[in-house]
Amino acid sequence: MPVVPLLELYGVVWLAEHIIEVAIACAVSGALAVAVVIALTRWADRRDARRAVTWQFHYAREVPAAPGAPQVSQATPPAIEQHVHYHYHVADGQDIARVVTGEVLP
């Protein structure tokens, strides 16, 4: 809302009081947000430290294959042969003349 109509309607004192109230509310909100971020960061650090102590005995181990399980070979797949096919079509004399002169073929 523009400031000039507020000044005319309510006066300078009222406007100054409300601007100060809004500034205080913004400062308190910002301070609370910073405090919450700091608290959550410290909580996360403590949680990570507890988890590191608890999980130091957890490790991954290789699971042995079940007896009698078929062994799968890791053979490389066959290579795909790369080749190019060239197709030559013989045209009659009139078609060759049209191609050379730039005429459109039917």
Question: Can you put this structure into words, describing what you see?
Answer:
- By secondary structure, the chain is mainly alpha-helical.
- The protein has a domain at 1-60.
- Helix content is 57%, strand content 0%.
- The protein has 3 helices and no strands.
- α1 (3-10) crosses α2.
- The longest helix is centred in the N-terminal third of the chain and has 43 residues, at 12-54.
- The relative contact order is 0.04.
- The mean pLDDT is 79.
Keywords:
3 helices; single chain
How do the strands and helices of this protein lay out in sequence?
Layout (H helix, E strand, L loop, with lengths): L2 H8 L1 H43 L38 H9 L5
The count of strands amounts to 0
Strand content: under 5%
Q: Determine the structural class based on helices, strands and strand pairing.
A: mainly alpha
* Radius of gyration over C-alpha positions, nearest whole angstrom: 41 Å
Write a short abstract of this structure.
The chain is built from 3 helices and no strands.
